[in-house]
Amino acid sequence: MPSPDSGTAAVVRPAAISAQGWGWRHSGRATQAIHALDLDIRPGERVLLLGPSGAGKSTLLHALAGVLGEEGDDADETGSLLVDGESPRARRGRAGLMQQDPETQVVLSRLGDDVAFGAENLRVPRGEIWKRVHEALDDVGLKSSAGDGFALDHPTSALSGGQKQRLALAGILAMRPGLILLDEPTANLDPAGVLEVRDAVGRCLDKTGATLVVVEHRVSVWKDLVDRIVVLQPGNTSESGSTPAVLLDGAPDAVLAQARDMLIAAGVWVPGYIPATRARSASVGSGSTAGDEVLLSARDLAVSREPARRRGFKTIPPVPVQSGLDADVLAGQALTVTGANGAGKSTFALTLAGLLAPVSGTLSAAVGLSDGAGTDPFKWKAQQLISRIGTVFQEPEHQFVTGRVLDELMFGPKHLGHGEDRVDELLERLRLGHLVDANPYTLSGGEKRRLSVATVLAAHPRVLVLDEPTFGQDANTWAELASFLSELLDAGTSVVSVTHDREFTSVLGGTEMRLEAAFQGPRQKAGAA
Amino acid sequence: MRQELNLRGNNALLTRANPLAKFVAVFLVTLVLALSIDLVSASTALLGELALFPLAGLTLRLLWQRGWPLIIAAAFGGWSTAILSANSGRVFLDVGIWSISEGSLTLGLGFMLRGLAIALPAVLLMSCTDPTDLADALAQKAKLPHRFVLGTLAALRLVGLVAEEWQTIGMARRARGVGSHGSPVQRFKAMLGQSFGLLVQAIRRASRLAVTMEARGFSGGQRTWARESTYSRLDAWVLVGGAVLAGAAMLAAQWAGTWHFVWLKQG
């Protein structure tokens, strides 16, 4: 532990933020991303920013970090936004920004170098940099002397998502910023990673007293750490009087009490509220009913994402991340795969889905599913696969194959030659009707998720495999998805999902299969939830 | 794949040398070999290089694992030179247009050894040089613009991710019914689509990384360096070693009378 006066506290001067009628239009867009923002944040205040997608939260954080747009772009700025009374662009380094995707928060390949990167750019002298690096790594709990700490030359690629975000925080702290900006810092993390990052942020704020602005729609995670909640609303730039960007502003409990219903309606995860979902119908699900048809069964399965490797002329099979797995996928039943990060949950699910070849063991499709295509799903042609097993990936964009929402939905049915009639029903059921002509890449996060589910279902698979379907989703999309899946289950579809989400698991019911971290290895059996 | 580029655990002597010194040494050797096609200079250089491998922490097995495509390419190059080049001296084999004579065999062998002697230093250099150290040396010692050098270094880290992303997108598209089955035209179209998907993701990721770097104050302006790139006495030895190896190869060929410049016609 550093002594109190040698710490960052002595040097960090918290920043003040002042916005007056501030608005920003991105180049190439017709309307402003954020409009008429009036907001004052005092030095050392900790603010949680809430609001529906499209309210301009990320735009505001980018602007405060001084990285919004470049000179010469045809972007438009109105009003003023100042950090410590100056333009944020001129004060780059005064604020540190953390974004969502952990992979892009790491710059260099060695732990210590990555922390030093920002300080180097701010022209901190060499001796001072290493002092700050050690201190920052200590503050976020990654120092080599700590329990789960690492050496300075530890490869950053070997860190988990939560550790990468903590590393990013260390890199920010080494710059000694007066303002810390977090843009959904935990949206891509599992529950343990979320707490890791939140606690590290809390410790660092207590120590430095820096100002904090965090955007995040899981309110319960940040509520106790902030002392103010600001709710933004999408700009309305019609001539008949524009609405201000700030809808509500105040102490956390007051804002939550005052606007609870409004926030719930906007899809915010309000503490203590679990969105209502459709219940599974009572007739199915108790396990021993006559309708228990096995569609897929895995016996002594070993799985790996790595293909077999070539070493010169030799072929070496990959080391399985999990082995000895037994599981049955039943019609009209959910199978939930849970476990720690890196336990091989997704790898197992992708193998079940016929997308990865098993390293050893067998995966066989029953006649009811294979329908004449053979028992090994990995050997099925792509078109045989999609009408039997549908897979929804964690990142919806990976699955987009056209430039228009309607084409995207018609893609499967067109290639199969049937099922086009179901597309309208899916459009309506997943509220995509108004978006048929939009480009899939331009949709919001929730819309992309709904579209990716709809496109896979358009091919009518009997088994649906979902990889972390609820990651980063707002409460409304979450509830819709859970209700829709419960409906599909009642209709006889089998749903396999990889998830950390306990509420989601309990809505779907069925069987939970827990995978332990790989190196503990022996046999894992599916047990009833 | 990423692990293989990682130097942790390699404590060999040459890992401690300045990358720039190693670069210059390798350049000297390569330059000499590029000047002459002959057996003697190439085999002298090759023997010298093999003797240096332990200093870079390389074993023959590691060399084969990392360099096998280059080794096979060199062998094929030598073979095709042997059967296709003009005959001189005794003819060993004659099958229609393909023939192997004393002269063409020597030329082919020389070609192969030269290929190896030029390719292996690259393998040697890569296996004892950390990209971060190389970037530091290029920016601090060679005074290349750091914006470019560090940008490339950061992008290099994403290259490992691209391989993973390619696999994921391939699976994600198979799950949409775009398969790698069918006629060559269909496969080509599927590949094109997958490449496009990869490109979109790569650009998005790169622009997020650019924002991260910019938010940490990265620009073309002045900066300090946490890691100082330094020269030591070892670097002088590396340079001397490169010069000696290059000189030895040249002198050996002169002495044996086999030296001739590549652009002179074979006589």
Automatic annotation (TrEMBL), chain A:
Residues 12-259, 296-528 form the ABC transporter domain. The keyword Membrane does not apply. PROSITE patterns: ABC_TRANSPORTER_1, ABC_TRANSPORTER_2. InterPro entries: AAA+_ATPase (IPR003593), ABC_transporter-like_ATP-bd (IPR003439), ABC_transporter-like_CS (IPR017871), ABC_transpr_CbiO/EcfA_su (IPR015856), ECF_ABC_transporter_ATP-bd (IPR050095), P-loop_NTPase (IPR027417). Keywords: ATP-binding, Nucleotide-binding, Transport. GO terms for molecular function: ATP binding; ATP hydrolysis activity; ATPase-coupled transmembrane transporter activity. SUPFAM superfamilies: P-loop containing nucleoside triphosphate hydrolases. Pfam families: ABC_tran. GO terms for cellular component: ATP-binding cassette (ABC) transporter complex. PANTHER family: ENERGY-COUPLING FACTOR TRANSPORTER ATP-BINDING PROTEIN ECFA1, HEAVY METAL TRANSPORTER. Belongs to the ABC transporter superfamily. This is Energy-coupling factor ABC transporter ATP-binding protein. It comes from Arthrobacter terricola.
UniProtKB/TrEMBL annotation, chain B:
InterPro entries: ABC/ECF_trnsptr_transmembrane, ECF_transporter_component. Keywords: Cell membrane, Membrane, Transmembrane, Transmembrane helix. It comes from the Bacteria. It is found in: Membrane. It holds the Pfam family CbiQ. It is a multi-pass membrane protein. The chain crosses the membrane at residues 20-39, 46-64, 70-93, 105-124, 236-257. GO terms for cellular component: plasma membrane. This is Energy-coupling factor transporter transmembrane protein EcfT. It comes from Arthrobacter terricola. The lineage of its organism: Bacteria, Bacillati, Actinomycetota, Actinomycetes, Micrococcales.
